[in-house]
Amino acid sequence: MAKGAVTQAAGFLAAGIACGLKRSGKRDLALIHCPGGATAAAMFTTNKIVSAAVDVARRHARNARIYAVVINSGNANACTGQKGIKDAIAMCQTTAKHVGAEPHHVLVASTGIIGHPLPIAKVKAGIASAAAALASSTAAGQDFARAIMTTDTRCKEAVGAVRISGKDVTIGGTAKGAGMIGPNMATTISVITTDAAISKSMLQKAMAAAVGSSLNKLTVDGHQSTNDTAVVLASGAAGNPPITRPDARYRAFAAALMGVCEDLTRQMALDAEGATRMFKVIVAGAATQAEAAKAARAVADYDLVKCAVHGGDPNWGRIICAVGSCGVRLDEKKLACKIGDIGVFAKGRPIKFDAAKVSDVIRKEYHTITIQLGAGNHTDFCYGCDLSRGYVTINADYHT
Amino acid sequence: MAKGAVTQAAGFLAAGIACGLKRSGKRDLALIHCPGGATAAAMFTTNKIVSAAVDVARRHARNARIYAVVINSGNANACTGQKGIKDAIAMCQTTAKHVGAEPHHVLVASTGIIGHPLPIAKVKAGIASAAAALASSTAAGQDFARAIMTTDTRCKEAVGAVRISGKDVTIGGTAKGAGMIGPNMATTISVITTDAAISKSMLQKAMAAAVGSSLNKLTVDGHQSTNDTAVVLASGAAGNPPITRPDARYRAFAAALMGVCEDLTRQMALDAEGATRMFKVIVAGAATQAEAAKAARAVADYDLVKCAVHGGDPNWGRIICAVGSCGVRLDEKKLACKIGDIGVFAKGRPIKFDAAKVSDVIRKEYHTITIQLGAGNHTDFCYGCDLSRGYVTINADYHT
């Protein structure tokens, strides 16, 4: 894992400090600053109930230049009414004042418990401390990554590099998220920085594609939070002629960005609440793309499949059951399933297989489940992780 | 709990014996016989992949008279191809031979592991033993109830009584099911007997209504099995003039049948894999009936809500999150939530409440969660249960 990822690209300063939101006293206020201003692209939760921070950030993200992103953990500032909106705006104002920018050029995100008013005085003091601590060092980048964590047991950081028009471009990102993760949204809170010069529309396009194939394909418990936010900031400090069209340079950048997002997604799956391993469900032969995605998600979300993965059990019956009940078209006579490279079901019938060998595949940190529906030629996938007693412990014993 | 429920109504003999399908040596072959023939109504899983038993029983259930129902546990006879169909038919043939009926007047059901061929010789011998043990005693009814169990830790049995045209009518039922329970299907395996005289169409109507408001409203893990079957047999032995129209007599019978199904549903929820308590989610103010049902199910299926219930935590934030992300229309300004009778959220804002009091409500065996969407005037509900470490233990450590 790359350390201090968000300060690897040129043009960014970061900080992460403790301002007293987390009872543990751990870091809970993260600030990133791009003194030269950055082009930004952002994606947000599709939950109908959203954090005040999402409400404010969604508007600010439309602006051409973004100078800072401020994030607090320990409190979601969701279901907090007008005070919540005021507080989210105050976070932008305080940040703007300290970094010398306009409030609407600041993005804000919050993560933590829902329905508690933000202790805004603490947050404002925290922003002042964070602004004073801003640095481009690896340590500062790591502090930032730590300060956005909630139930995560470790930081998620990833860095990618790509040559564009003879210039070295760096992309670095961090993400937080361990539970309440479902696809079809900009999952969790992710912040990516790059020194690429790229237009807002191309950055948005690259980010949508990267998130669509990575963060949006991970389901831990099928849950969308009120606060999910993914942001990419491009400082342009690498000095490449700006990417403004979907050409080869764009594709090189987009591929590198996707690599970073995929790396973060993998790290999130493996640090999911209670998770000990992850898997990728690939559904082929679907009648439509949407049905392929639906079936893949149905399998990855199926608690009985997740439990079987946890137990290392090649219980293909549960996979077939999930596929059969999710409402997608299939041809039972062509239905097939592989765990890793080993066929366990084909032409609608079980295949004899070496259960110990398949168990070994499942017990690895990462394996694939491939399903052929026999109803068309569309393919899609989803990442999932196992369901353990640890998930229950974390979520039953956690108290509001 | 009523013991030996399926032999309480006049006209039925039952048996439950062990034929060697369960490694534990427990009872795994259940037989019910109605010497005078019964009117039958049945509902089956809507999973696209179904057990051979479902395939066969679906056809046989169309017949006017049913003389027997044979059920094995320990093996689902699902994903077993042509041999599976042959075996399911053989179960009907063997039963028919022993009770003196036609094979197509016998219903068959199987429950247990998917994808293993049925050891049909054992099953045939078991049917012979069961036929020899048939009795109308309470003990025989209990044996039947035990023989359909899989991961259930206890029998589920319920009895209802109703006067119809001056005759005492009895309705008795048993159900098995502990996991892989989702709504929108005839959940699990349920067998109900009654001595009412009632036409097939009225019996089907009453059964559909009863299952629709009980078994179909329970979600343990949102999963539909390949084998779910619910059957009601009416012997007519009570001697009432047959119910043939949706009149007051029909309504009295239907209400009693629903009572039995609701009782069985409650017992299933409380014996769900790892469950320690259950809850009812009532969604009001939905734009359509379907959206009310969808939102209720989304909350009942939400792992984070289930964990909070397990922990006795009044975490209304997770409830609101589930509602917000399930895709139904809502008016955030009117959104409200009660746990038991205590308001925790109203007009889109948290309400101050006594957390200890709400915890006490949640820690009861049964509580309600009521949600107002503010988007219309449709209401629906769903039953759920808590998610515990026990669920994971049962489903991760269970090996194929």
Describe, in plain words, how this protein is organized in 3D.
The structure is a homodimer of 400-residue chains. By secondary structure, the first copy, chain A, is of the alpha+beta class. Chain A folds into two domains: 5-270, L-amino peptidase D-ALA esterase/amidase, CATH 3.60.70.12; 278-397, Roll (Ubiquitin-like (UB roll)). Helix content of chain A is 34%, strand content 26%. The first copy, chain A, contains eleven helices and 14 strands. Chain A has helices spanning 52-60, 81-99, 120-133, 138-147, 200-212, 248-270, 289-301, 303-311, 316-325, 355-362, 389-397, and strands at residues 13-17, 29-44, 66-75, 106-113, 156-164, 167-176, 189-194, 229-234, 278-286, 336-339, 342-346, 349-350, 366-372, 378-385. In chain A, β7 (189-194), α5 (200-212) and β8 (229-234) form a beta-alpha-beta unit.
Topology:
2 copies of one chain form a homodimer.
Chain A: E1 13-17, E2 29-44, H1 52-60, E3 66-75, H2 81-99, E4 106-113, H3 120-133, H4 138-147, E5 156-164, E6 167-176, E7 189-194, H5 200-212, E8 229-234, H6 248-270, E9 278-286, H7 289-301, H8 303-311, H9 316-325, E10 336-339, E11 342-346, E12 349-350, H10 355-362, E13 366-372, E14 378-385, H11 389-397
Parallel strand pairs in A: 3-4, 7-8, 9-13
Antiparallel strand pairs in A: 1-2, 2-3, 2-8, 5-6, 6-7, 9-14, 10-11, 10-13, 11-12
Helix pairs in contact in A: 1-2, 2-3, 5-6
